[in-house]
Amino acid sequence: MKKIILPLLALAPFAGPVTGAAEDDLAQQLANPVSSLVSVPFQSNWDFGIGPSDAARFTLNIQPVIPVSLDDEWNLIVRTILPVIDAEAPAPGIRDASGLGDVVQSFFLSPVDPVNGWIVGAGPVFLYPSATDDLLGTEKWGAGPTAVVLKQAGPWTYGALANHLWSFAGEDSRTEVNATFLQPFVSYITPAKTTFTLNAEATLDWERNQWNVPLNVIVSQLFNVGNQPVQASLGGRYYAEGPDGGPEWGIRAAITLLFPK
After folding, report:
1. DSSP state of 114
2. 4 domain residue, yes or no
3. For position 26, what pLDDT does the model report?
4. I need a labelling partner for 133 at 20 to 30 A (CA). Which of 96, 141, 212, 221 fits?
5. Which residues pair with 160 in a beta bridge?
6. Is 7 within a domain?
7. Helix, strand, or coil here: 30?
8. Could you give the CA distance from residue 178 to residue 204 in angstroms, rounded to a whole number?
């Protein structure tokens, strides 16, 4: 049976804290998935306890976020997730696998100004069968809607991101993609630009009627390396729900490069 894997680098040395009004804005923008800030996160995930072999899986998600100003009222935010995966065999008879996974790319049309105090964005999301090994992807083309809504009040940011993907082409022998992704999140930013984040990354596979629900607790710090603003993150994850043989817990670490205008 084929095992399908669906969808952080070592921390950089601390080179001085970021302070000031501009950095307050940077920290707020980082907490906003549809901010007009160019950023390139390198997110490393280690998942453990997979299958009867108690296997581990490493996933490096390269996630550039590119905002495009359409006019004075609208932005288009392009968010891409390119996974690089190294997966140990979860059970006898299933081999190890390493390589690229399937790319997921979202396009959010977002008004420049909040709507009644809420920041919103919506658009299409696409699944590309870019996996270099059939154990690491779906071998399906997919598409669907995506949306995000959030509010920022003082040091708090809270909201949710969601999408749904249906497959429409690809390898006929593979299971169809029909999956809903839900990511509620809340974060708190301290005066020292330390951000505490709690989120869930829940996926409902409608084909198998199966939830996969990792809960993440993450601490992030904004700082400068020379003139380059950077955010480093470290956290843990617990799988509250998942398929038989799925991971039980994991670790997340990330480096995010920021390119403010």
Report:
1. -
2. no
3. 85
4. 212
5. 149, 184
6. no
7. helix
8. 8
Q: What is the pLDDT of residues 186-229, one digit of tens each?
A: 999 999 999 999 999 999 999 999 999 999 999 999 999 998 99
The answer to whether residue 6 is domain-embedded is no
Scan for tokens 């009004």, then name that residue: 21
pLDDT band at 252 (very low <50, low <70, confident <90, very high): very high
Q: Map residue 116 onto helix, strand or coil.
A: coil
> Residues 227, 204: contact at Cβ < 8 Å?
no
At 54 the three-state DSSP class reads coil
User: Per the structure block, which two tokens stand in for 58?
Assistant: 């490493």
Helix (H) or strand (E) run with residue 94 in it:
none
pLDDT value of position 19: 41
Domain total of the chain = 1
Cβ proximity of 251 and 236 under 8 Å = yes
141, two tokens: 């083309």
Q: How far apart are the C-alpha atoms of 40 and 17, rounded to whole Å?
A: 20
Task: Give pLDDT tens digits for 102-117.
Answer: 999 999 999 999 999 9
Give 9: exposed, middle or buried? Use CB within 10 Å, 0-12, 13-18, 19+.
middle
Dihedral over Cα of 241, 244, 249, 251: its sign: negative
pLDDT tens readout for residues 27-85: 888 888 888 889 999 999 999 999 999 999 999 999 999 999 999 999 999 999 999 99
